[in-house]
Amino acid sequence: MCALRRLITMTKKKNSSSSIQALYDLCTDTFTPSETSPPSSHAIHKLSSLLDSIGPADVGLSDASKEDNRGHGPFGIFSFNRVDRWAQPITYVDIHEGENFTMCIFCFPTSSVIPLHDHPGMTVLSKVLYGSLHVKAYDWVEPARIRKIEGTDHSTVRLAKLAVDKVLTAPCSTSVLYPRSGGNLHCFTAVTPCAVLDILAPPYNEFAGRRCSYYRDYPCSTLSAEDDESGVGKEEEYAWLAEVDTPDDLHMRSGTYTGPPIQK
């Protein structure tokens, strides 16, 4: 009987760790140093399908919506009282950080925001683990449309097309962005307490030309001149983006990964 109980326990541990280990292994096979372009659609489909099956428990999280409303963090640890919960920072949890890809989790308190930013030359897969997240994303219009703006804080703006503007509520499918499509520049706003599992490949690296830049979007009609023959179609589908400094109100703290260990 004792041997049977040990076997059941070992099986449960194996099953709980298999999803995140399988995800890491598949990422290792998919994102290699020899890759000079984004992975094939087949490879991304395999990763997305595996990500679709992963939930909070697979990475050591519980559904933190109730904990957040009681002033607890996403790991069930009391860290803020109810008065301060609107000022809570976003928690960043590093699962794996390497030269070819990064796996991480962002845990959002209600109403927190990661401002509009880009992913130069990168492919990013995002899976909402729990809660609801509003995503607004753009892709650059090609060839580049750049305008000089007089009398503003920004000397130039560049035209971008709206790619995504919707709320994602778990459980939902994995979202994928590419270097030139899928909403490479995006903004996240937490509608409720939520968490997002991200895979970034290759990861940010300023020395390799992959610096994270932040932007402010302006409605197309706001900065369009009367004689502007842009021919962009419906104005609500486009915006002028101006690069800005890293926002002062972007607050993040590091969290500890508490999920099943990954064998590398």
Automatic annotation (TrEMBL):
Its EC number is 1.13.11.20. It comes from the Eukaryota. The keyword Nucleotide-binding does not apply. Keywords: Iron, Metal-binding, Oxidoreductase. Its cofactor is Fe(2+). It catalyses: L-cysteine + O2 = 3-sulfino-L-alanine + H(+). The keyword Ribosomal protein does not apply. PANTHER family: 2-AMINOETHANETHIOL DIOXYGENASE, PLANT CYSTEINE OXIDASE 3. Belongs to the cysteine dioxygenase family. This is cysteine dioxygenase. It comes from Rehmannia glutinosa (Chinese foxglove).
